[in-house]
UniProtKB/TrEMBL annotation:
CDD domains xrefs: PIN_LabA-like
Composition skew (Basic and acidic residues), residue ranges: 178-196
Molecular function as annotated in GO: RNA nuclease activity
Domain NYN: 26-156
The species this protein was found in: Methanolobus mangrovi
Protein name: TIGR00288 family NYN domain-containing protein
InterPro entries reported in the protein's UniProt record: CHP00288 (IPR002790), NYN (IPR021139)
Region (Disordered) location: 165-196
Signal peptide range: none
One Pfam family of this chain: NYN
Length: 196
């Protein structure tokens, strides 16, 4: 079993130990229809706050389909993100924007919030071009292929934020965490939750 750390400070510390000299420039892309659902309770403000400890979020885009409510769009804007309304397939638009980040020389790190294995080639291409990759996956249904393709993995599961790091194995976690997962305490910023 992996070494288990708890609390938001643990995740912030985890990412801060990974940063190189200077602040990282981060491009964050969120797969709205896939993760912004009541059953997942994804908190975009908390994701942004965790990434701010690691670097500067230069690009923050949330991709939505044409059925997104005005209330959702407003909530995304209020959280400091750019909503992108897609009249066709959201995954295609997100992948195109992701490739733009891969070739953007001012972005060091690409962060994705999704569960969808369709974005594995995007992560692979980013890694191939020297970009760091962070994936925020949502359980249940988080793709193992995505988990194994990113440099850093943070798992959102039942109002908990965990980070996955197979670099620190230990015999027993003591709190039921899966091998390699680091458990974070329950989130309490319910006012910032967004529902698709």
């Amino acid at each position: 079993m992996a070494n288990v750390k708890t609390g938001l400070n643990s995740i912030v510390k985890y990412l801060s130990t990974k940063k190189e000299t200077g602040r990282r420039s981060i491009g964050l892309l969120v797969d709205g229809p896939n993760v912004l659902r009541k059953e997942f309770n994804v908190n975009l403000e908390e994701i942004r706050d965790v990434l701010k400890e690691y670097g500067n979020v230069k690009i923050g885009r949330v991709f939505l389909n044409q059925y997104a409510s005005d209330k959702l769009v407003e909530a995304i804007e209020n959280n400091g993100f750019e909503p992108i309304i897609c009249s066709s397939d959201v995954d295609v638009r997100l992948a195109v924007e992701g490739m733009e980040l891969v070739y953007n020389p001012t972005i060091d790190t690409m962060a994705l919030v999704t569960r969808d294995a369709d974005f594995k080639p995007l992560l692979n291409k980013a890694n191939e071009h020297g970009k760091e990759t962070i994936i925020f996956g949502v359980e249940p249904g988080f793709s193992t292929a995505l988990r194994n393709s990113a440099d850093y993995v943070i798992i959102l599961d039942n109002d908990e934020m965990n980070y996955y790091d197979d670099m620190h194995p230990q015999e027993e976690s003591g709190n039921g965490a899966k091998d390699g997962e680091f458990v974070r305490s329950s989130r309490n910023k319910k006012d910032a939750l967004i529902d698709y």
